[in-house]
Amino acid sequence: MAAAALALPLPLVAAALLALAAAWLWDYAVVRHLWRPRAVAAAFRAQGVRGPAYRFLSGSNGDVMRMRAEADGAALDVHDHDYLRRATPHLLAWKDKYGAPFLFWFGSQPRICLFDYESVRQILWNKSGHFVKTDAHPTILAMLGKGLVLVEGTDWVRHRRVVNPAFAMDKLKLMTATMVSCADRLIKDCEQLASNNKSGEVEVEFSKHFQELTAEVISRTAFGNSYKEGKEVFHTQKQLLALALATLLNLQLPGFKYLPTKSNRLKWTLENKVKMPLMEIIQPRLASKGSGFGDDLLGLMLEACFMTEQGERRDELTLTMDEIIDECKTFFFAGHETTSHLLTWTMFLLSVNPEWQERLREEVLRECGKANPTADMLSKLKEMTMVLLETLRLYGPVMTMIRKPISDIRLGSLSIPKGTGIVIPIPILHRDKEVWGASANEFDPLRFANGITNAAKTPQALLGFSIGPRSCIGQNFAMLEAKSVMAMILQKFSFTLSPKYVHAPTDLITLQPKFGLPIVLRPLDAS
């Protein structure tokens, strides 16, 4: 009798579970992936905004992969800086077909691609929190951490207050010697290779060397004596980057990131390999806070963690251990990945523009002589600054920025629904001839002769470090490092592109030369 009584509710339980499953299926399959995309597309169509048709679950991802694969085989002339049909073929194809702006789909998530600077300015300069960053791909989050780049609202204010002191210019100037010391090792290696060749010339693959160099710089400036553990983080983050590239456009089903798939297990392993060495670096610092945290980036950040807004000492950390680890992930990845590509593309542009290479060499020798440069010397390199800014305009490492409104919002003449991803295509905007002039596709550092504000018809049109309150906090660090390295190379070598170089800029989350950057170096004392 008891067993029969217990058995009676089972049909009811089954019915309840079935009802829940049906409700979930209705919401997920019908509402989120059928009805809502159709409704959003219709709302934009009514405003004159069109785009590629939505495909169930995958959206426009299949079209993006197909067009990228078709464009991947194209190689450009080394003087052709209009690489967009190779690196972002889908954006140009849809702009040509549907006009601007246009609507496309990242899975079931709507994306509207904007091409006017006024709308971009309103989004990036907004201080009211109306526009936030879109949710990061799980592997990107594991690699980058939810640090200053990804947090929002009051969390961003809290993180910014802690991180900001570490990137103050007076603190960065003290790190110049470390940057120069790391660059000097690369220079000496190149000199040794050149001395072994009878011709006095040597071919060096600089894309790889610059990645190693910038990882060394950020390891030493961020973690001081623990730089070896920092280098472990660099190699693991590179593996996470490769995994992110392989899975970025894959279909993301609800709960999929929690399943023990092959890629998820690899991600969890790599995430732990990033976290453990960082904990081993941070914990001893916290344990010895009475004797100071150190004068590297981590030490300065930890010091700020124990300070109130009024500058008074506090007993508890402003950030949790996980948040400190995430900040370390963020400034470590951003500190080497973006700067290495800035150096790579600067080296490329100076190789194909020998007149500017010579101008910079004359400036470096005039301001620095043949001595290792100091921060004060580097601050006088005005033409070097112009070349680096022009490199960021033509070959900036970040291809797009994406924001989404937290509520339905009016942007210019457009009504944009809550949660719609707003894509800002940086290299396309940087080639807008109405803003940058007829020479927008050409290398012309002189456009920055009077500073960033006056370089284009629209003030602050350069988006390489973003603009507004969320602009890159590490931009002074990146520029100081890039100046240090380029100054030391120009002091010692003249250089040209190797005949092996193939000009194929590729969007691999950051803009990179697909086949590397082989450069022929010739020591100046051998000229």
TrEMBL record:
Gene3D superfamilies attached to this UniProt entry: Cytochrome P450
Source domain of life: Eukaryota
Main localization, broad class: membrane
Keyword Chloroplast: no
Biological processes, Gene Ontology terms: lipid metabolic process
GO cellular component terms listed in the entry, alphabetical order: membrane
Residues bound to heme: 472
Keyword terms, alphabetized: Heme, Iron, Membrane, Metal-binding, Monooxygenase, Oxidoreductase, Signal, Transmembrane, Transmembrane helix
Cofactor(s) essential for the protein: heme
InterPro entries, per the entry: Cyt_P450, Cyt_P450_CS, Cyt_P450_E_grp-I, Cyt_P450_sf, Cytochrome_P450_Monooxygen
Range of residues in the leader sequence: 1-15
Record's subcellular location: Membrane
Gene Ontology molecular-function annotations: metal ion binding; monooxygenase activity
Family of this protein: Belongs to the cytochrome P450 family.
Name assigned to this protein: Cytochrome P450
Source organism of the structure: Urochloa decumbens
